[in-house]
Amino acid sequence: MSGAGSVLGAGDVSGAGSVLGAGEALEGGVRGVAGLWGKVVRLSWVGAPGPLVAMVGLTAVEGLLPPLAAWLTKLLIDELAGGAGASASRVAALAVGVAAAGLLTGLHRSVAHYASGLFSRALRLLTTDRLYQRVNAYVGVARLEDPAFLDRLRLAGQAGAQAPGQLTAAGLALFKGVLQVGGYGAALIAVWPPSVLIVLVAAVPTTVLQIAVSRRQSRLLASLAPSQRHQLALQTLMTDVRAAKEIRLFGFGGFLGERMLADVRDGNAAEAAFERGLLRIEVVLELVSGAVMVAGTAAAAYQAIRGSITVGDVSVFLAALAGVHGSISSITGGCAGVYQALLLFGSYHDIVDTPSERSVAVHDRVGRLRTGVEFRDVWFRYRDDTPWVLRGVTLTIPAGRSIGLVGVNGAGKSTLVKLLCRMYDPQRGQILWDGTDIRDIDPDALRRRITAVFQDFMTYDLTAKENIALGELAQLGDLSAVRTAARAADVDDELAGLPRGYDTLLSRVFAGAADDDVGQLSGGQWQRVALARAFLRSDADLLVLDEPSAGLDAEAEHALHRRLAGLRSGRAGLLISHRLAALRDADEIVVLAGGQVSERGTHAALIGAGGHYARLFALQASGYVTGDLTGAAVVTAEVACDPGVPSIVETAERR
Q1: How far is the C-alpha of 100 from the C-alpha of 608, rounded, in Å?
Q2: Which of 283, 341, 408, 649 is deepest in the core (most CB within 10 A)?
Q3: How does pLDDT run across 117-148, given as a tens digit for each residue?
Q4: Short-list 1, 2, 108, CA closest to 57
Q5: Segment 473-527, tens digit of pLDDT
Q6: Cβ-contact 184, 44 below 8 angstroms
Q7: Kind of pairing between the strands at 436-437 and 572-576
Q8: Range 363-449+540-655: architecture per CATH
Q9: Domain made up of 2-352: CATH architecture
């Protein structure tokens, strides 16, 4: 059952679909198997040629040593059986040979283990590098939002680290088994030809057993995959710190745990049924194999008594019975291992060897933004079976000017940002950078001209300095530049005051970190770190801010927007916010509704038009209406909509 356990443990439970898909590919025949195995051999040669050669040589020695030792033992026994006529020097030489074979067997295992370790580490490094180079080469994020692809990616990560080693080990096991069977066969033919047939017949039950086990293991892996995927999802959820608050407050940890245990029970029941069936097969076949071996041993003893063969010949026969039995097990087990490892490697191959989605860019460099960015009749939806998110959007972000983007949840604001950064491409229409379709521009060159804070900004398990420097890695060693960006985001004092200042690790994920080496930030402080990351790329032509102040208190938000006015100077800006007062200073405000541009104009013009924007602004303003608050202005929604009346924020400032 060790084979089944290793397969179930090695395969990512969420990747059953990929495993089955690879299995279907392998059913294409010998050519498909040989093609994948050839790729593994080439990968192994590139990644670890020295250890690979050493492992092949050591395997050859391992395969030939047992038959050689058996033959030397036969000669020694026959020499000793000669009694007084035995040659002392010959006996001594044969004894040394037998001892040397045993010594080499033990020494070989140690060296082989070392070479195998070198090989595995080198291949793990190479395959991981190639896999994530491919992932980082994806232009957009569509694949990373596809659960099926993420399943394949997780399986490919494991397959890349494990499958080459498994395939190599399985191939070497085949090689060793063939050498041992050939060596023992040659010895048996030399001493008693009929014994070859007895030995091969004794190995048939083992062969049948291994084939049956391999097939059943593959079926078991496929049948358990759905419940194991669900089990993994529940385990991840119960250890997710973000979910922990609700799990403990509402007390449904036991409910999730019971769901997980139900999956474990289902898996245990399936494995137990597999093992019971395997036990029955093993008992029957081992009894058959044992009966054949007993009969063969009796026949050999009878031939020795008759004088047809020597006592040494009998020793070779007995050694061959055990050796060939083990060799056949290695060969059939190696075949099963090759099949299962190829299933895993097929997932890795599918991702790494898929042709790049990048088209040849017409422009691999982008100069300063001169005229602006234009969305021209842009239509977009995430899948062909989903509604359109953007429906013919046309708008312009002029160079050196700022555009405020307004809309209810789901209006398509963040989608528009993703398209602008080429995380996706529109199905219809164009996005033009100074008149050039951004699909004709190298994505990396385009993104170098853009800096952004996304609504779902990231918090990285890195130091404070590194969290900001990710915005411009060339300045990772320039603490002064990092602190300048932090001051622009009003987070410098908080970061400098951490236990180790800007070298403080902003995470408790990594075990072993001392308490005085780590720090924790509030949600608002993290948002300002994300802002500093965007500000560090000071030479960008386009500044995109998607809800940049959602996590800030009122005072911090007001201070931020005052600074943003200066930071946007000289470059194009796209500002998205549900807090409409934050957009008053934009050169133009664009309102998205139903995936289309419904209104555009300055704040004053849109208020005067009394449309969708004015209604949203009035609704927000009504939340600030007060009754009898001493020293506070009483502002009605209607007055707030009057373009001649200062904003609520401005009124509050004067107070």
Answers
A1: 100
A2: 341
A3: 899 889 888 988 888 888 888 887 877 777 77
A4: 108
A5: 999 999 999 999 999 888 999 999 999 999 999 886 664 555 566 888 888 889 8
A6: no
A7: unpaired
A8: 3-Layer(aba) Sandwich (3.40)
A9: Up-down Bundle (1.20)
